[in-house]
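Subgroup meeting minutes
Present: P.N., E.W., G.H.
Scribe: E.W.

1. P.N. recapped why we're keeping a running log of single-chain structure predictions: easier to compare across weeks, and new members can see raw inputs and outputs side by side.
2. G.H. added today's entry (583 aa).
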Amino acid sequence: MTEYRVIRKDPNYYCLFNFGIIFLSILSIFCALFLLTPKLEAQDIMPFSEVRAGMNFYGLTVFKGTDPEKFEGIVLGTKLPDVGSICGSILVELKGGPKSERGFILEETNVMMGMSGSPIYSLDGKILGSIAAIIVGSKRPQAFVTPIECTLNFRPASFDMANKWIGGGDSIDGLTSIKNEEPVVRPGDIVSFCNVWGDHRSCFVATVIMVDPKDQQLVYLTGHVATDMAKGMTATPFFRAEVVASQPNIMASSKLAKSIGEPIGTVIFNGPFGSIAKLGVYPKYFNFDVALVGLLKNDIRHNYNLTYSPSGISSLSEIINNELTLVDNIFDVEIMAVVVAKELPPINLFGRLDYPLAIPEIVSFFLGEEFEPNIEKVRMVLAVRSKYQKLDLEEVSCRREEESEENNKYSIKISATGKKGFFENNQSIEILEKYKGKKLNVASGEHIANRLLSSNMAHDRVAEMLNKVANRNSLYIFYSNEDEDASKSEAAPMIIFAQAKMSLTSDKTRNVDVQSSAPEPAIVIGKWTKHIPTYDFDILHQIPVIAQELGAAYYITGDKSFTVPAEEENQDKKKKKKRFIFF
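Output recorded in log:
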């Protein structure tokens, strides 16, 4: 079995061993010698308690290209953990690195964003920690270092739980698995994590701290929590990266880097003192295909893969907004989209794109707070067209059609007005007996969809309702007893807790026995509302908004309600009409 390991004999040199044979490469200015050496089972660490001000060290990071280079530094001091924290920090000042036109690169750029995770070692080869934070605006290349003990020891129970976002197989769409002949990452290597990949990638970069000597599939990164990933258990593919250039900035310099090649694994845990990646495993993801038509001579099409995470959802919104930035403000955009989820019917949407977050909100709803990996793909076509005119829903009235032989026929009159137009519609619809005397509503498909996505209804029910209002340009007559149901919520029994009073003395805290007669225990009273959403939500009728005679298309906003006349009211009206007066 082919095996690769990172071997460090001296801080200046690295080598790999392959096919069970270990070679140590010692480079000098004039010659190179290859010697057989035993496997290193562990990386020596320097405890935080032994770090002292004035201590010299060296570190590893990539300044240009893909190979880590050495820099030097000195410890300025240490900071003990804050109240409630479990980790202190080390303040350091860096120097050296490769030479630039103005001297050493760190003198020109100071500490750069992208150096997070760069390991630092004592001069005898013990790892102290990794660069975690820069001092913004500092005139000196100073940084805070996370002690290595914090990074290695912070592995809560969730780290060992089954990760539902890890996929099966040895590859993901468009990306092949790690090849056996490729070396594993080394301390100081630069890598990128990508929440979006495909035609374009959305990534951020960090540095490898070390490979776990006990399990060389595990790689420690960043030295701090990665803000672009979900905290705790996660699944984000990571790639090798290349530093293209260093960008000096008076506030905070940065490395300009790009991901290269296929993914080499997945970041599986994102903790407060660093991230942990696993080589050779791949995340589950969903596919997003988007096309922008009618803007240029040729359609613009892009295909992306996104992770099941808050970052994946925000990236979905960012992609849509980026597509829309190409559209001139004199145009409107119509959307035709379908969201495919497991064990649910495809969810369709079409109409004016009044709300760019419509698709991300649908995806978020079905992923839920736990980001269940149940979305399979999203297809979207954005079609550029002439501007819509906005109208506001103004009035809705309802009356029973007296001339109709059918007892359930009602005439619904709807009017909407705007600056440049007027919309009026009379609909003859059948209303079931159970809705007589009830309050019905009229609103646009977009308004109803937003209401459904903010509800607590079951996913299959929401999917059914969303498909009934797929045309977001139309108006719909619907019934919901959500408000009525909420008012009938059952109040749970009052809960009374007996809480012992605490008395503070100069030397200790004393608990008062709650069973004793004196002093009296404090009483804490609490209650909660027990409410399981079981309300009805029915779409009764669709009203297409057509205004061809006005020479433009309109969309209507607003939400109006009306009450369906009960049978008694209809009978009273009939009696009044049959009354005769003689003179």
